Amino acid sequence: MAVGDANPIYDVETDHEYDGIREFDNPLPAWWLWTFVLAFIFGIIYWIGTQSMSYQRSEEQYLSHKAEMAEYQQAMAAKSVNEEELVAIAQDPAAVAAGREVFMTNCKSCHLEHGEGQIGANLTDAYWIHGSSPKEIWSTITFGVPEKGMPTWGPVLGDKKVRELYAFIATLKDTNVPGKEPQGVDASGAPPAQ
Ligand code: HEC
């Protein structure tokens, strides 16, 4: 019997023919099916392994190291700004005007024109989520609060513009424009009265 000839004992022909090609309706070879079954079983074991074991632990480790590193960098950078310099720049009308311009371009969309807040916090009330000292405000602008939707502006705008922004925001402080409800605490650490 030549290769390709039907074996009359078990070869049953399907009833279709495409371009002259006809097929037998035979089962798949057992060895081939086993590679499929074994790959499937291996896949399940591998999936359970990666979900429950060291792989995940190493991701947690990575994230916690990353958070530590970010905290460290913020602490180092915050040390390098000088509170007196920030207080001085807030007295400089040219810096305030420059800061106002940067604010209208980059911040108005979330904090609105008068700083009264919408998506972003109200910058005109006495209550601050991340602190109201010059260094704290500088730090919030520089590093942002990415998980709360406040972008990280330091690398985008550069330190000069961040300082000018601080100067402008210092003029908004305590202007109490009605807008977004107060969030955070005031200078004495008290939350807004309900
Ligand atoms: C995409 C929206 C968005 C933009 C744009 C944005 N902010 Fe914010 N901002 C936020 C949000 C949201 C918060 C509140 C973060 C929180 O809840 O911790 C915030 C908080 C702040 C705070 C802290 C307020 C507090 O109570 O401590 C300051 C300061 C601030 N933004 C300044 C700026 C400046 C300056 C710019 C422009 C360079 C800017 N923001 C642009 C969304 C934005």
CATH architecture of the largest domain: Orthogonal Bundle
Instruction: Please name the CATH topology of the largest domain.
Output: Cytochrome Bc1 Complex, Chain D, domain 2
The largest sheet, given as strand count, sense and whether it forms a barrel, is: 2 strands, antiparallel
Rg (C-alpha, Å)? 33 Å
Strand order of the largest sheet: 1-2
Q: What is the count of helical runs? A: 8
Multimer state: single chain
Mean pLDDT: 89
Question: What is the C-level CATH assignment of the largest domain?
Answer: Mainly Alpha
Characterize the structure shown.
It is a single chain. The protein is mainly alpha-helical. It has 2 domains: 40 residues, no CATH class; 110 residues, Cytochrome Bc1 Complex, Chain D, domain 2, CATH 1.10.760. The protein has 8 helices and 2 strands. The protein has a two-stranded antiparallel ribbon with strand order 1-2. A hairpin with a 2-residue loop joins β1 and β2. α4 packs across α8 and α6 crosses α8. The longest helix has 27 residues. It is elongated and about 100 Å long. The mean pLDDT is 89. The chain binds heme C. The site of heme C has 26 residues, from α4, α5, α6 and α8.
